[in-house]
């Protein structure tokens, strides 16, 4: 009985031990549980993969550019936190990878497929414009390879290949529609156009006088900005000049598109009206004067405030100073006037309004532009013809008076007045002697009886021409004093 008592517990113990050992073997057959698989860090040529297991195990990473993996292994089975760094990777490249871990008994767990991209392309400008990730990685790889080329000849070959590839794949930028010139002024204009793709902006131009049908003598280029909507400002142009121009746009691959020939004409400067004055107001007239910064045609536009009648008076000549006399006005009436100046292209500028009222004329005429010219008519009897001219600011009756020599003359000769009042006066005199000094002046009276005397003027008549005999006698007289007694 004692034996039985001991055998039962021993048997039971063996059963229990067998159960425990079997249970541990059951537990030992479970592979590690892999969690938190991720790329902890990466560069252009490395990547560090990390993950965790629920019990100690080794570290294995299978990786490759396609889901056909290579392998890197850390054989130690003592880690629950795993980290494996992959070296010598290609930059800007998509890599597939998976991780696996096995415990010391060889129970292995394998993760699913993961993907990472090595660095490189993200530092390339405008890479985000490439929509495909695969194409982005190719750009990055190409950039990485090119950065390793140091031979200029090799770089030139690469550039040629890239341009050839671009020409195969891309179309040159097209100029859409007709380029236009806008905001045209006398010395500048803005050229605008559109292109099918982003590109730079180039304008070639020439004045018509220098354009031979194909060559443009000047160029303005905006090369640093790529755009589809182009705008280039041309400055330093000549006023009132026709220009030929052509636009061109070149993209980043060196492909370019150009327009045909176009033209625009700059404007003339718009005149600036300065120093407007009413020189004289009379019973039935008023005289305006002004100046402009460039030669311009001018006119006075005026309104009779009593009747509402609007009239104008002016000159079509392009002058820098203008004087205009308004006539047939009504005494005692108020008028509103403006001065208008016009350049050669018909562009106008107006002065501010000027108001005046006609009054009884108490101002004498203004005498101006006094001039004289004498001509000698040789012959048996020498004759002198002298023309004297002058002007007045209003129609006037004028007489001319003159005397021989510079001394005051009580009895001056007088050329009678004109029979009709006028503003332009001319007198022709034939009684002057040759080689003689004369003093003259004019006296003018307007229709209201206001009189004005000019200042004194001096003229010299031409010297009488000498005959051959006169010249010979003068020479002998200079040499032999007795010659002067020959005629005695």
Topology:
Elements: H1 2-28, E1 34-42, E2 47-64, E3 70-86, E4 94-102, E5 108-110, E6 114-117, H2 133-147, H3 152-169, E7 175-182, E8 189-207, E9 218-234, E10 242-250, E11 256-258, E12 262-265, E13 273-281, E14 286-304, E15 310-326, E16 334-342, E17 348-350, E18 354-357, E19 367-377, E20 383-404, E21 413-415, E22 422-429, E23 437-446, E24 451-453, E25 457-460, H4 468-479
Antiparallel strand pairs: 1-2, 2-3, 2-4, 4-5, 4-6, 7-8, 8-9, 8-10, 10-11, 10-12, 13-14, 14-15, 14-16, 16-17, 16-18, 19-20, 20-21, 20-22, 20-23, 23-24, 23-25
Fold and architecture overview:
With 488 residues, the chain is mainly beta. The protein folds into 5 domains: 1-25; 34-121, Immunoglobulins (Immunoglobulin-like); 175-265, Immunoglobulins (Immunoglobulin-like); 273-357, Sandwich (Immunoglobulin-like), CATH 2.60.40; 367-460, Immunoglobulin-like (Sandwich), CATH 2.60.40.10. Helices cover 15% and strands 50% of the residues. The chain is built from 4 helices and 25 strands. Strands 19, 20, 21, 22, 23, 24 and 25 form a 7-stranded antiparallel sheet that branches. The longest helix is centred in the N-terminal third of the chain and has 27 residues, at 2-28. The protein is rod-shaped, with a radius of gyration of 54 Å. Mean pLDDT is 84; it is low at 1-27.
């Amino acid at each position: 009985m004692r034996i039985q008592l001991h055998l039962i517990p021993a048997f039971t113990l063996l059963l229990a031990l067998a159960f425990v050992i079997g249970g541990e073997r059951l537990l030992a057959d479970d592979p590690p549980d892999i969690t938190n698989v991720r790329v902890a860090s990466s560069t252009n040529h490395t990547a560090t993969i990390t993950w965790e297991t629920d019990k100690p195990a080794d570290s294995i990473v299978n990786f490759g550019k396609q889901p056909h993996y290579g392998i890197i292994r850390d054989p130690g089975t003592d880690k629950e936190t795993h980290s494996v760094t992959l070296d010598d990777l290609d930059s800007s490249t998509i890599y597939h990878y998976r991780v696996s871990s096995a415990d010391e008994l060889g129970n292995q767990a394998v993760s699913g497929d993961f993907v990472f991209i090595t660095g490189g392309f993200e530092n390339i400008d405008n890479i985000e414009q490439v929509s495909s990730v695969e194409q982005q990685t190719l750009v990055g790889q190409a950039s990485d390879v090119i950065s390793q080329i140091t031979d200029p000849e090799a770089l030139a070959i690469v550039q040629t290949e890239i341009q050839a590839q671009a020409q195969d794949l891309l179309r040159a930028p097209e100029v859409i529609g007709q380029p236009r010139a806008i905001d045209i002024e006398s010395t500048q204009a803005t050229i605008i156009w559109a292109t099918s793709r982003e590109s730079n902006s180039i304008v070639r131009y020439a004045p018509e006088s220098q354009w031979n049908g194909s060559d443009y003598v000047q160029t303005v280029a905006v090369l640093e900005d790529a755009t589809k909507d182009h705008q280039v400002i041309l400055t330093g142009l000549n006023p009132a000049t026709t220009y030929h121009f052509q636009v061109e746009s070149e993209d980043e691959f060196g492909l370019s598109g150009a327009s045909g020939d176009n033209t625009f004409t700059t404007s003339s400067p718009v005149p600036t009206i300065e120093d407007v004055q009413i020189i004289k107001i009379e019973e039935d007239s008023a005289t305006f004067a002004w100046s402009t910064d460039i030669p311009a045609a001018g006119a006075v536009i005026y309104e009779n405030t009593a009747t509402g009648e609007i009239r104008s008076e002016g000159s079509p000549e392009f002058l820098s100073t203008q004087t205009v006399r308004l006539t047939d006005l009504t005494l005692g009436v108020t008028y509103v006037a403006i001065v208008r100046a016009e350049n050669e292209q018909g562009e106008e500028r107006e002065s501010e309004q000027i108001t005046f009222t006609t009054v009884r004329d108490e101002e004498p005429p203004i005498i101006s532009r006094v001039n004289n010219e004498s001509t000698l008519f040789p012959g048996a009897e020498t004759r002198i013809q002298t023309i004297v001219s002058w002007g007045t600011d209003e129609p006037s009756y004028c007489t001319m008076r003159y005397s021989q020599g510079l001394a005051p003359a009580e009895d001056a000769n007088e050329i009678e007045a004109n029979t009709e009042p006028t503003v332009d006066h001319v007198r022709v005199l034939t009684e002057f002697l040759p080689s003689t000094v004369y003093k003259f002046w004019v006296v003018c009276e307007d229709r209201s009886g206001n009189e004005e005397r000019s200042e004194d003027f001096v003229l010299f008549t031409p010297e009488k021409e000498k005959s051959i005999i006169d010249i010979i006698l003068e020479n002998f007289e200079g040499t032999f004093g007795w010659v002067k007694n020959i005629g005695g």
